[in-house]
Inverse folding.
């Protein structure tokens, strides 16, 4: 089981071929839309807007970002699927969308079937934070307080992957009186964690870092395989004795059936972003890691991840809900 989550740290950073290998294309001949199925202000929204700015200049055509929120990312995904398969609607998704065939089978959405995957853009280590008003200075302090508390401690999770992580931590640490509180999106969870309404918040490092820098959040642990340079004093979960790795990713895709000329033009635009210093610095400054990958590598990794996550999803989200 330990090898399962170690997988998430082994995300390939594959460089694209030079831009001049792609054939000439008339795409785009009109504005392009990037759909973000989560609220404005989140990490994927920021990334999408940075890409839109770069690609507007690259293509000399408007690239706009729209937020279609709701349904744990489902509403925006359904919107993208409702649009023509012509490459003019690009979806920015996170890895929890992979899990819908298991956790939401009635939706009948499988992103590896219904979309052409283009590239992972960045990966984020999960950070486990408490509000600065809380007394915990270390993860050990948090565990000690929770084990002796008369009220259940709570883990705020904004994704299915976060829910799995929270339940595995509870299981491995013996916090039998603790619970995982699921949220439909990241921002409400962060607000509640900042206010102390949930005991600990689990979120991507790119989302947590602004609040860590202001001192509003105190980071207690990080889900990466090694300590991060942005948080050198924060131990990894493995250092704390937990056999867990917590990493999430953002990636882009277009509807299945998108013509090759449009698809390759977007691949070329991703190649431009992969070599743009402002994009790379923005990702790194947010505490994330650029992980631009080829379409083939993205598809292969997505299928491997789904195969590895399926038993965990069934155990921690389905079996425990019966």
């Amino acid at each position: 089981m330990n090898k399962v989550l170690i997988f998430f740290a082994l995300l390939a950073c594959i460089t694209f071929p030079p831009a001049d290998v792609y054939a000439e294309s008339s795409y785009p001949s009109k504005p392009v839309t990037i759909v973000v199925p989560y609220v404005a202000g989140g990490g994927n929204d920021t990334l999408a807007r940075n890409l839109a700015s770069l690609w507007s200049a690259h293509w000399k055509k408007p690239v706009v970002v729209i937020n279609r929120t709701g349904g744990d990312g489902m509403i925006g995904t359904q919107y993208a699927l409702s649009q023509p398969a012509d490459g003019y609607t690009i979806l920015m998704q996170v890895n929890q969308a992979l899990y819908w065939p298991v956790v939401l089978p009635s939706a009948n959405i499988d992103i590896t079937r219904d979309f052409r995957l283009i590239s992972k853009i960045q990966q984020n280590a999960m950070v486990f934070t408490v509000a600065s008003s809380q007394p915990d200075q270390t993860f050990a302090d948090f565990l000690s307080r929770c084990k002796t508390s008369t009220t259940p401690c709570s883990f705020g999770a904004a994704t299915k992957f976060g829910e799995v992580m929270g339940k595995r931590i509870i299981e491995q640490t013996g916090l039998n009186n603790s619970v995982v509180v699921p949220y439909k999106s990241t921002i409400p969870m962060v607000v509640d964690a900042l206010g102390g309404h949930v005991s600990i918040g689990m979120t991507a490092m790119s989302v947590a870092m602004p609040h860590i820098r202001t001192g509003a959040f105190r980071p207690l642990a990080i889900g990466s395989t090694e300590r991060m340079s942005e948080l050198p004093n924060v131990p990894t979960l493995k250092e704390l004795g937990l056999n867990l790795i917590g990493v999430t990713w953002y990636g882009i895709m277009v509807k299945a059936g998108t013509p090759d000329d449009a698809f390759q033009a977007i691949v070329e635009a991703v190649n431009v972003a992969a070599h743009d210093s402002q994009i790379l610095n923005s990702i790194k400054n947010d505490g994330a890691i650029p992980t631009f990958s080829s379409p083939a590598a993205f598809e292969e990794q997505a299928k491997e991840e789904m195969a590895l996550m399926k038993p965990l999803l069934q155990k921690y989200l389905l079996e425990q809900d019966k």
About this structure: The longest strand covers residues 115-131. Strands lie at 32-36, 63-67, 89-94, 115-131, 154-157, 179-182, 200-204, 217-222, 247-255, 289-290. Residues 1-16, 18-23 have pLDDT under 50 and may be disordered. The domain at 12-123+248-321 is CATH 3.40.190.150 (D-Maltodextrin-Binding Protein; domain 2).
